[in-house]
Each structure stands twice: as structure tokens, then as C-alpha cells.
Known about the structure:
alpha/beta; Glutaredoxin; 5 helices
Amino acid sequence: MKSSTPGDESANPEPAAHPGLSKQAKLGVALLVICALAALFWPRHGKTFKEPGGFPLDLDGRPATLGSRLAPVSLVHFWATWCPPCIDEIPSLQRLARDFQRRDDFSVVMIAVGDEKGKVTKFLGPGWDMVLFDPAWDVAHRYGTDKIPETYLVVRGEVVEKFVGATNWDDPKLRGRLTSLLATPAPRTAAAGPGS
């Protein structure tokens, strides 16, 4: 490279620096971005969770099992007081539960998701102390719920239908379906012999 002295017009000017990154630098940045994203989204198998994990909680904050609350025909309802469609739906669900309350073969299990005990009990009023809580969505996610309200119709331990969004539990067709499920006897198992 020639050095130029002031007033030397014949000297070649230095070429302008090429704006932007070189191909190698671009590849390096892309690789760095990919590594950062992989680190961010890579599954963390070493992550610990609370044992027994994934249980709903009762009003006292103790883990509770769903099995003991399920009748032969049950509705497992995920909802919250901060969810406007849930607020609209709850009165019809409460009427359904009240209308079927004398039946031992039917239950409504309400699970408040990501909600506060005080708000839930105030909203539901007296007589709803059996509500369960799912503060971290563990139970809801296990059922496949990622938005609320959602309700699962569980018949003899098996989910047979999923209601997504607010449901009109006063609907005569829906109530008729529930009544017909309640009237259907449980299937006999192979272990049950004649006369059992």
C-alpha cells in the first residue's frame, strides 16, 4: 500500500471497508443463535418436581386424589374465577349438580386452575367446599387441557367426551344424555360369574 502525502493526488485511495459481516462471521452468528435457542428450549430431564406431583389440592392445600371423588358418571370441570366464560357457565353447572345431587352414581368435580382459594370459595358460595385446586395446571395438562373452561365426561373411569368452552348444562339434550348414562348398568366383568 502506498503512503500518500498531503497534496499527492496520484496516490490510490484505500478501498472502502466492506459494510456488513463476512460469510464466516455470519455463519458464526447463526451458529451462536442456534446454540442459544437449543439451550433455551432443550428438555431439562434433571428438573425436579414435587412428589407425588400432579395432584389437585383440597381447600387445606393437601394433595387430593380424583379417584375418590369420581362416581360411575362424573364431570371433571376445569375453570377459574379469572375466566369470563367460566363465570358465565358456572351457574348452569351448579344447577345441574344440584338437580342430580341425590344420585350416588353422579358427581361434579370442579377444579379451579391457577386460582386463589378465597376468590373461588367466595364466588361459589356455601356448599362447594369440595372444589379442588390446580395451581400450576399440572392436572389440567395431564387431562389435555390448555385453555378453560373444559369439562370431561368420565364414565366408569374412562373419559368418553370432552366439552371445550362454556357449555349450557341446562340443555335438555345434554341432561337427557347424562340421565341415559346413569341408567345404563355397568358392564359385567369376566370375573363376575352367573348369579353374581
